[in-house]
């Protein structure tokens, strides 16, 4: 059985999807971009600020499912320019311990929703 996870502390979906779905003990989040949850405005000052907003949005979705980044087992990172990888990775790394960091892939794509620079989703377990 699946349970829909929603929170006002992360951006509302902009299409026919939910912020996350909990299936058993496994949480599947939708990709998060740097939309500020209160204002709905994009946070694009620089790539580090943008990535931090993405991670804070993911943090809020995880919290709504009573989880933290410690529960994350897999992330998917989509970026529009691989030249931003090191800066994205630096911010991303602040949310995980190296010894227990999740598996992940990072893929450069031609475009992302609202023409942002980074989108991240994750899978977490209780």
What does this structure look like?
The protein has 126 residues and is of the alpha+beta class. The chain has one domain (2-125): RutC-like (60s Ribosomal Protein L30, Chain: A, 2-Layer Sandwich), CATH 3.30.1330.40. It is built from 2 helices and 6 strands; from the N terminus they run βββαβαββ. A 6-stranded mixed sheet has the order 1-2-3-6-4-5, with helices on one face. A hairpin with a 2-residue loop joins β2 and β3. The two termini are 15 Å apart. 30% of the residues are buried. The model has no long low-confidence stretch (mean pLDDT 97). This is RidA family protein. InterPro entries: RidA, RutC-like_sf, YjgF/YER057c/UK114. It holds the Pfam family Ribonuc_L-PSP. Belongs to the RutC family. It comes from Oceanihabitans sediminis.
The largest sheet, given as strand count, sense and whether it forms a barrel, is: 6 strands, mixed
Report the count of strand segments: 6
Shape: globular
Low-confidence stretches: none
Q: What's the helix count?
A: 2
Fraction of residues in H or I helices: 10-25%
Strand content: 25-35%
InterPro entries: RidA, RutC-like_sf, YjgF/YER057c/UK114
Protein name: RidA family protein
Family: Belongs to the RutC family.
Organism: Oceanihabitans sediminis
Key features?
60s Ribosomal Protein L30, Chain: A, alpha+beta, 126 residues, six-stranded mixed sheet
Concise description?
This protein has helices at residues 47-64, 85-93; strands at 2-5, 20-23, 26-29, 72-79, 103-108, 118-125.
Detail the topology: elements first, then pairings:
Elements: E1 2-5, E2 20-23, E3 26-29, H1 47-64, E4 72-79, H2 85-93, E5 103-108, E6 118-125
Parallel strand pairs: 4-5
Antiparallel strand pairs: 1-2, 2-3, 3-6, 4-6
């Amino acid at each position: 059985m699946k349970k829909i996870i929603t929170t006002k502390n992360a951006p509302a979906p902009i299409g026919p999807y939910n912020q996350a779905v909990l299936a058993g003990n496994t949480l599947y989040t939708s990709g998060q971009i740097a939309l500020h949850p209160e204002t709905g405005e994009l946070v694009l000052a620089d790539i580090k600020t943008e990535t931090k907003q993405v991670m804070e949005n993911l943090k809020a979705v995880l919290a709504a499912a009573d989880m933290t980044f410690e529960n994350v087992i897999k992330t998917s990172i989509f970026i529009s320019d691989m030249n931003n990888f090191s800066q994205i990775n630096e911010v991303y790394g602040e949310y995980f311990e190296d010894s227990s960091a999740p598996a992940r892939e990072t893929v450069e794509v031609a475009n992302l929703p609202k023409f942002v620079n980074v989108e991240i989703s994750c899978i977490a377990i209780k």
